[in-house]
């Protein structure tokens, strides 16, 4: 039986993360009231550049102790590059959560919802997951600079792939494919990146022997991005390294209308540590402070949180509420990224109202 009440650490973060978060919480509370899911929310001001400017660090020293007692983290966005370099804010917060809480799966659904306008000419029925390796790969801090400031300046950054790290995310992706349409696509670039990427391919081949009923195909990342745009309906589960998965899970939602609606679950499958649920989008400094950000990614991330804890009825109802509101395509409700004239408040409140209707 899932925990009830669910103890949720709310970490709004920066920019539009803090603007969409209240609607994520309100929608969870609304659906919780109907399906008898209790929440205990506690909000934290760290993992933000405001906190950094006050304290000289993105998080307090005891952040792990503070957050370990929660069932899940509900996270907005991080980064304000005009104030703190992006790599400092990201490595000081979100990447620490993913690594220290061993959230090695980043699950990112990509679905074309009714009523949402897509830029694609022939979208078909888009409904797939990107499974992104989330704790190693190209996101490594191993490397360095030599001869800085001279003509011989040299910069090196290593990619790290471990057998444990790659096999466990592949296993997760294969299991997901097995529960869905038994089709898995793997993304690499094994002609150009000639050590790590062919090795990833070999681990896919090895893992596929345990899942003979799952059809596997593999693509180089460059042509795969073209297929995402031209034939996105052919995909079901796409597994990729940390960087490639990040890119694909921005491109996928852009093909389904807007990255503003895309959710993401950073999962620690064993439950030893809390998992983290966040919108795919970042802090969007260009629109921050205007109240016009799309709250759907944040709200949908809350839906993934409910599903993660086995509250499937509540999760289905929340997704249905999102779908119903978007399907009505009311310009005064929808945000500008969806072609509307509404704002964060109009769209967030419409979904909350739909849950309670
Ligand atoms: N809501 C997620 C967020 O703030 N993303 C900012 C970002 O750049 N994330 C990088 C990543 O997911 O690897």
TrEMBL record:
Query: Which GO molecular-function terms appear in the entry?
Result: D-malate dehydrogenase (decarboxylating) (NAD+) activity; magnesium ion binding; NAD binding
Keyword Magnesium on entry: yes
Q: Name the UniProt key words of this record, in alphabetical order.
A: Magnesium, Manganese, Metal-binding, NAD, Oxidoreductase
Pfam families registered for this protein in UniProt: Iso_dh
- Cofactor section: Mg(2+); Mn(2+)
**Known EC number(s)?**
1.1.1.83
User: What top-tier enzyme class does this entry carry?
Assistant: oxidoreductase
What SUPFAM superfamilies does this protein's entry cite?
Isocitrate/Isopropylmalate dehydrogenase-like (SSF53659)
Catalytic activity from the UniProt record: (R)-malate + NAD(+) = pyruvate + CO2 + NADH
UniProt-listed SMART domains: Iso_dh
Q: What name has this protein been given in UniProt?
A: D-malate dehydrogenase (decarboxylating)
- Species of origin reads Xylaria grammica
